[in-house]
Amino acid sequence: MKQLLGVLAVSLSLLFGCSATTEGEKEGIVVATTGQIADVIQEISGDHLQVSALMGSGVDPHLYKATQSDLSKLEKAEVIFYNGLHLEGQMLDIFEQMAKDKTVVAVGETVDEKQLLASDDHAMLHDPHIWFDIDIWKEVTKTISEQLQEEYPEFKEDFQKNEEKYVKELNELQAYAKERVNEIPQQQRILVTAHDAFNYFGRSQGFEVRGLQGLSTESEYGVKDVQEMVDFLVANKIKAIFVESSVSDKAMQAVIEGAKEKGHDIVIGGELFSDAMGAEGTEEGTYIGMYQHNINTIVDALK
Prior knowledge:
The protein is of the alpha/beta class. About 45% of the residues lie in helices and about 15% in strands.
C-alpha cells in the first residue's frame, strides 16, 4: 500500500509539473503573445530569462485562438505580456483569468491615449497596430523594461543597459526609415495593403494609407469594397499595391484584375509583415529587421 501511494504521489507530481525549486522561487519564464513583443523582451532580458511567443510567423493575431499548448505555457509563465487594444480578441477571457494569479501586462493599454489612433471599425476602440510607430514602440520598450526590473530586480542593471542599447538601435532605425522614405516623391506616398494595419506607419512616415479590409481581418470585404479600391487606384494612377504575410492575397488579386479591366496595370510591390514578423532566426524575425524589410519593400516599389 505504501508503495502504491508513493507511485501515485510521483505521478501527480509529474502531472502538475511540480519543480525542484522552492516555493516562491522564480525561474525567469516570460511569455508574450506576438513576436514583436517577445523580441523586445529578449533584447532587454539578454540571457537572463526564458522568453517565448505564442504566435509565430504568418499567424494572424485577430483570429488566433489559444491551443492547449498555449494554455500550458501561460500557466507556467511568471509574467505575461500581450498587445491589448483588442488585437488578441479571442484571448481576452484567458488574460483576465491569468491576471488573478500573476503579472499580466497589456502593453498597448499603457500608451498615452493621445498617441493612439481611433478605430474605424468600432467608435469606442483604438487601432491596435502600435508597433508601426517607432516612437510608441520606444514607450512600449520602456514599459516592458520597467516591469521586468520590478519582477526580476537581481538583473535590474543589465536590463537598463540593454534597454538603453535597444532604444539607440530604434533611433537609428527611425533615421534610416526617414532617409529611405525621402526617396519617394510626396505625391507617390500612397500605401495600399490588404487590411488596415499601417495607419501608425502612415502617420509617422507621411503616407496616405488604404486597406481593403478594416483594422481587424475579422471584418469582411465585398464586391463594393473591391470596386471602390479599384476606382481609387485608377484615379490616383497607383502602380503598386502590397500583400501581407499573415493575410490571404486573394482579395488583392481581385483588385489587380479589376484595375486591369479598366486599362490600368498594377503590380504586387512585395510582401509586407503586418501583424506577424518573419520566421524565427531570420533578419525579418526581429522587430528592427521586419521594419527595415517593410521600408525597403515599400520604397523600392513606389519611388
